[in-house]
Amino acid sequence: MKSPPFSYIRAESLEQAFDLIDQYGEEARILAGGQSLMATLNMRLSTPKILIDINKIGGMDQIKLDNDKIVVGALARHTKVANSSDIKKYAPLVSKALPHIAHQAIRNRGTFGGSIAFADPAAELPAVSLALEASFVLQSRNGIRTLPAKDFFLGLFDTALKKDEIIIAIEIPIIKDDENYSFMELSRRQGDYAIIGIAAQGNIKSGIFSNMRLAYFGAGDRPLIAQNAINILEGERHTAEVIKAVEESLSLDLDPMDDLNGPASMKMHLARVITSRTLAEISA
Ligand SMILES: Cc1cc2nc3c(=O)[nH]c(=O)nc-3n(C[C@H](O)[C@H](O)[C@H](O)COP(=O)(O)OP(=O)(O)OC[C@H]3O[C@@H](n4cnc5c(N)ncnc54)[C@H](O)[C@@H]3O)c2cc1C
């Protein structure tokens, strides 16, 4: 299917983008990499009258170290983030997740900010952002606010982003010396959206877990933190009893849906499998 007709304007600055948002309101959509938006237009799931292309706004694709955090511009494309030596060193969980996003051609266009704004519950970066306790920098004509990832994802493709806001950057705390991380996903083929996945990071000192973050994708209507599992792990070692208790607790936190990949019960089983593998990897 082809998209319905729409107009297109390329904004040269944030100011111009905000002017256009004011002018067109609900009829406008921000265009970043276009890798999700164009598909939704072609399937006629969205029928905006105008696309506001933000790709030429200067400086929004930079990756910069800023004291104890790494700041990724919203327009940084997946390939650029994957190739960044700073990301590999200071946010290795992101590097580990990126090759699982779609295929190279899509990673060459898709952006970090676009993935966060689109908020697909099966996408990797929203869950990675939760596990890293990242924050999103949101700008409108009225100013800038910074929202933690945990407060951003509200439901199925639903976020706290206001109609007049643009995601400017993603702020990621850099990994600490005593932290370890792991990332796993199960999909039918490399590059497919995940059936289920986990992004995890936390402290592991003398074999004891603390401040763990277990974030799941494909496990509900949004990326989810398994808080009950995290509470069980706090101050514990990796033992068969602890892992069993964690696995059992997942049904309290995760809420997978039946879909073409299989029933919710299968996904819950797979969530337990990848959780125990992830915790074994983190504590090894
Ligand atoms: C075949 C295929 C397979 C894919 N597989 C995967 C996968 O396995 N995992 C995965 O995570 N993704 C996958 N994707 C999606 C891909 O990662 C996209 O890059 C991403 O979801 C959206 O980024 P984008 O820059 O292309 O955003 P766009 O498509 O341009 O925009 C998406 C939405 O976000 C809004 N938006 C974009 N940027 C901003 C911003 N800075 N501020 C405010 N709103 C904004 C747009 O208005 C739009 O509503 C796949 C896509 C395709 C086509």
Write the layout of secondary structure elements.
Blueprint (H helix, E strand, L loop, with lengths): L6 E4 L3 H11 L3 E4 L5 H6 L7 E4 L9 E4 L2 E5 L4 H6 L1 H6 L1 H6 L6 H6 L2 H7 L5 H8 L3 E6 L2 E6 L4 E3 L2 E2 L6 E8 L5 E8 L9 E10 L2 E10 L6 E2 L1 H7 L6 H14 L10 H20 L1
Parallel strand pairs: 1-3, 2-3
Antiparallel strand pairs: 4-5, 5-10, 6-7, 6-10, 8-9, 11-12, 12-13, 13-14
Helix pairs in contact: 9-10, 10-11
The chain binds flavin-adenine dinucleotide.
Provide keyphrases for this structure.
single chain, 284 residues, alpha+beta, Uridine Diphospho-n-acetylenolpyruvylglucosamine Reductase, domain 2, Uridine Diphospho-n-acetylenolpyruvylglucosamine Reductase, domain 3, Enolase-like, domain 1, five-stranded antiparallel β-sheet, four-stranded antiparallel β-sheet, 11 helices, binds flavin-adenine dinucleotide
